[in-house]
Structures are given as C-alpha cells and as structure tokens.
Amino acid sequence: MDVWTLWGRTSTAGEEAQCLSAPSGYWQFSIGAVSVLIERRGLWVSGLLLSVLLLASLGYLALGTETLSLAALWPALQGNGDPFSVFIVQELRLPRLAAAWWTGAAFAVAGCLMQTLARNRLATPGIIGIDNGATAFAVASVVGLGVSLAPPAMALIGSATAASITFGLASGNDTRGYRFIVAGIGIGAVFGAVTQLLLSQVDIDSANAAYPWTVGTLNARSLGAVNLLFAGLLLGLPAAIALGRSLSGMRFSDAVAAGMGIPLKHRRIQVLTLAVLLTALAVAVAGPVGMVGLIGPEIARSLSSPRGVPLVASALAGALVMVLADLVGRLLLAPVELPVGIVTALVGGPWLLCILLRPSRS
C-alpha cells in the first residue's frame, strides 16, 4: 500500500478539485489543504495478505506436538480453559508467534528498502552482508562479553559497520548494479569467517550458546529484544511509508529522481539507516534468518501495482513467510525442531534461482 501526501495551495474550490483530483486507481482523502492518496490495489493486496497471515497464525497456535482444537484454542487465548492449553498458548506459542510476525516484517521491509535503494532485486540485507555483520558482532558479545543485553546493541553496531564498509567499497553513492552486490557479498563472507573463527576459539558450551545466532531461530527468544523490535517497527515502518514518494522516484535514474525534486543524498542516508536499524533489531531477536528479505518483497511486488513501493504488503508478506517457515520447522521432523533459518534457506534457494531466471517487470 502506497501513501502519498500532497500539499495544495489555497485556491478556489474548482481549482483545488482540479489540482487534487485522485488519479486513476487511487482513493483520495482530504483534510484541509492536505490530500492523501491511497492506492486501491495496494489496499486490497494488504487486506488479502493480512487475512492469510491471520489464518496461518491460527494454525501456528493450534498445531504442534500437542495439537489444540479451535474450541480449546479460543479460551486459551483469553487465559481460560484447560491450564495445560493455556500454558502452551500463552507461554510457548503466542510469544514465539509475535517474534515471527515482527522479525518477518522487519526483514522484509529492510529488504524492500535495500532493493529500492540499489535498484536491484538481489540487494537484500542478507545478500549484501548486513546480516552477517550483525551476526558476527552478536556472536562476539555472546562468547566474549557474556552480557544478556549486549547482543541487540552489538547486532546494531555490526549492521552499521557492514553497511558502511559496503557503501564505501561501492564508491559511496554508487548503489546500483552488481558492484554494490559483489561488495556486499565480499563483506558478508569476511564477517561470516569472523563468526566461524570466534566459534572455533571458545569452549563447547560457549559455542553452543552462540550457535542459534548463526542459523536463525525463534526458540526461547528474549522478550526484551522482541519488545525492542516491535518498538522499532512502530517507528520504522511509518517512517518508511512517509518516504514512499521519494522511494518511488528513486527507482528511476538519478537525473529523473533529481528532476522530481528528490534530495537523493539525504534520502539514501535515511533509507539506509532504516534498513540497517530494522535488520539489526530483527537479527537481535532471531539471528540471521536468510531469504525473508528477498521472498517477502517479491511476493508483495508480484501482487501489487508497479506504480509504487509496496512497503506495507512487504511487511505482511515477510511476517507470513516467517510464520509458515517456523511452523514447518516445528512440524516437519517433530519432535525434532528445525531452526527457521534452515527452512527459509531451503525455500529461498530455489526462489533466488527463479528471480535470476525470470525477467523483472518494467
């Protein structure tokens, strides 16, 4: 869903209606001299994705090694009914479902922002090294500092470091094409090697404690980190939507974007900051869950109109991918649980090949 805000000048009623009439495919809502345009198709797509996400969430709460019927699930959600069912839903599955929602949305929105910034469908936080940078710093905090509050802060520092180095190697403003991608892959490989080196130099107990940060999992996540991610999404997603008009213009050449009045240098810094922040907060909760930042925006883009950047649809699609991937990981080899990062990698590999072989829409 794309939201555009237009500022109209004070004029006669006829002139204002002419200046602010809604384009085809949009609904217009006016408050005084300010008019907000909401794309119809984007709204319907977001509603569809939200409906599917809610259905998948019901299945997530009901299914597992202990399956609950819908008749038992609803009282358990309210804290009533059988104490065992209440414990399973309230203490085990509902917090994990919330973590799946917020991490999936954060990874997908960050991926959508990075793809728009680089004008490349492969420029996701995982592929250009931001995930690996956050993981390396988070693992360093686990095996070195031993402070429970350190991994989220260290993940943020690692993401910012990886992003800064990648942009520096790509000559700063050159965020287009494969030079940016190759630089990010190289930085990601370096940080991946650092992570493996750290794990090889510590005792087995410390390595086991840090292992979940290397594959991505939603099992026993910190409630504080989840709440911090939720707060980051409450700030980051509206901020990204507010940049919607600039993001749409940044998909074109620099000359066209500048002609539209977009301050490219400032917008690139803002978009990069949002992407790094959302990625770092998501990695601090779930670790480096790969491919969600690629699959979520691709689903949203395939369903949405090409006229705008589908940020809200990407968030919903990313949350849906994360919920389904974690559900599959819990059920596929039950009672043995597959980390969600392994499931998304298995699904995302063929998806990546499809993207490479399929031409993009103009």
Task: For the structure shown, list the relevant keywords.
disordered N terminus, 16 helices, 362 residues, globular, mainly alpha
Architecture blueprint of SSEs:
Blueprint: E1 3-7, H1 13-19, E2 26-31, E3 34-39, H2 40-62, H3 70-77, H4 83-118, H5 130-145, H6 150-169, H7 177-200, H8 204-210, H9 212-215, H10 223-242, H11 244-250, H12 254-259, H13 264-286, H14 292-303, H15 311-331, H16 340-357
Antiparallel strand pairs: 1-3, 2-3
Helix pairs in contact: 2-4, 2-15, 3-4, 4-10, 4-13, 4-14, 4-15, 5-6, 5-7, 5-8, 5-13, 6-7, 6-13, 10-13, 14-15, 15-16
In summary, what is this structure?
The protein is mainly α and 362 residues long. The protein has helices at residues 13-19, 40-62, 70-77, 83-118, 130-145, 150-169, 177-200, 204-210, 212-215, 223-242, 244-250, 254-259, 264-286, 292-303, 311-331, 340-357; strands spanning 3-7, 26-31, 34-39.
Mean pLDDT figure: 81
Order of SSEs, N→C? EHEEHHHHHHHHHHHHHHH
Low-confidence runs of at least 5 consecutive residues: 1-19
Please outline the major beta sheet: 3 strands, antiparallel
How many strands appear in the DSSP assignment? 3
Plain-language structure description:
With 362 residues, the chain is mainly α. The chain has a single domain (44-357), classed as ABC transporter involved in vitamin B12 uptake, BtuC. It is 70% helix and 5% strand. It has helices at residues 13-19, 40-62, 70-77, 83-118, 130-145, 150-169, 177-200, 204-210, 212-215, 223-242, 244-250, 254-259, 264-286, 292-303, 311-331, 340-357; strands at residues 3-7, 26-31, 34-39. A 3-stranded antiparallel β-sheet has the order 1-3-2. The longest helix is centred in the first third of the chain and has 36 residues, at 83-118. The model is unreliable at 1-19 (pLDDT under 50).
